[in-house]
């Protein structure tokens, strides 16, 4: 085990931020560290313990650049649309500035995804997507993806939960040679962080979203 940060569980859970501007694009990430994080991810739950997950780790510069190009195009489309982070809650004096910073940060990563040293794409075997119980499907990969990100943070690595690459899911599947029944979930850029101090983020108050014994 190569822990580099001394974080207790609550600190780990509350300071694993979406890292974009503080990803160190120059420092190599040893595959051994990625393997450790993935071993931890495999301890996550999966429906019926099926473990029908697959983990794509992309380190090849040309492949990263190609994925980065698709990602940049997807980010440009997202930023031009009405749902972009920076266009939400603009009139709210508390949330507006935070949203603008997020939008700015999304644009920054959009330009650099292909330069991040390691791109990880957790995938799931699913020939068809169910019309009904989607949580049973995606719940078999997303907790494991988050475990990977927590394990990475504990080792001084930064990650970001990104999904805009799904705009070009087919193109990226073709690029990586994924079998037809294998679906991508998140695209997780992974790099050492510039500094390791991250803080809990401002969130909406718990009592605004808590419903005990019914809505
Ligand atoms: C479902 C989901 C999709 C997301 N997609 C993207 C994305 O495509 N690109 C990106 O830069 N951030 C993406 N994010 C990161 C969010 O913007 C981020 O979690 C949010 O701003 C809160 O920041 P924090 O994670 O540092 O607390 C996504 C997060 C989630 C949960």
Automatic annotation (TrEMBL):
Transmembrane segments: none
Residue ranges constituting the Nitroreductase domain according to the UniProt record: 15-182
Oxidoreductase keyword on record: yes
Alphabetized Pfam families for the sequence: Nitroreductase
InterPro entries xrefs: Nitroreductase (IPR029479), Nitroreductase-like (IPR000415)
CDD domains: Nitro_FMN_reductase
MF annotations from Gene Ontology: oxidoreductase activity
Source taxon at top rank: Bacteria
Keywords on record: Oxidoreductase
Family: Belongs to the nitroreductase family.
Annotated protein name in UniProt: Nitroreductase
């Amino acid at each position: 085990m190569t822990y580099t940060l001394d974080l207790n569980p609550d600190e780990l859970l509350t300071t694993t931020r979406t890292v974009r501007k503080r990803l160190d694009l120059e420092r190599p990430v040893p595959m051994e560290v990625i393997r450790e994080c993935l071993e931890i991810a495999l301890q996550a739950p999966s429906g019926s313990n099926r473990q029908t997950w697959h983990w794509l780790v992309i380190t090849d510069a040309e492949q990263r650049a190609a994925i980065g190009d698709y990602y940049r195009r997807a980010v440009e489309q997202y930023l031009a649309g009405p749902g972009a982070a920076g266009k939400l809650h603009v009139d709210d004096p508390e949330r507006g500035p935070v949203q603008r910073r997020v939008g700015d940060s999304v644009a920054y990563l959009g330009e650099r995804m292909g330069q991040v040293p390691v791109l990880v794409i957790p995938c799931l075997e699913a020939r068809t997507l169910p019309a009904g119980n989607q949580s049973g499907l995606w719940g078999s990969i997303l907790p494991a993806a988050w475990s990977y990100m927590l394990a990475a943070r504990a080792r001084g690595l930064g990650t970001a939960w990104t999904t805009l690459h799904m705009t070009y899911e087919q193109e990226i599947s073709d690029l990586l040679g994924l079998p037809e029944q294998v679906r991508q979930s998140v695209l997780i850029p992974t790099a050492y962080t510039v500094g390791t101090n991250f803080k809990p983020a401002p969130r909406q108050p718990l009592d605004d979203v808590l419903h005990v014994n019914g809505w």
